[in-house]
Amino acid sequence: MKTGRIIAQLRQDNGWSQNQLAELAGISHVMVGKYERGDAIPSLEVAKKIADAFSVSLDYLVGEGQNASFDKKTIQRISDLQLLDETKKQTLFDLIDTYIRDAKTRRAYASS
Fold it and tell me: Does pTM top 0.85 for this prediction?
């Protein structure tokens, strides 16, 4: 189950034990193990608690949807961009595009 692998990976990335995640999310550590193994699927309510503990969206936790690859900070930043005037927004987009182009170029030369 994809969600279980994502939960396990996020937990490991944060350096948390199953007990620590369970405590942060307010759930049973036994259930954390079941979710990670794919023996059980968290309810929507529990999935939200787990996502909140990791500061990720539900999309990210289940690995689906438009925002599946973004954490909550990234989503908030994208939302905040909409508040800027068009000139500042364009300046930021130009800067982002430059960094992305440079990263792609470095990647292309590194694999050659």
Answer: no
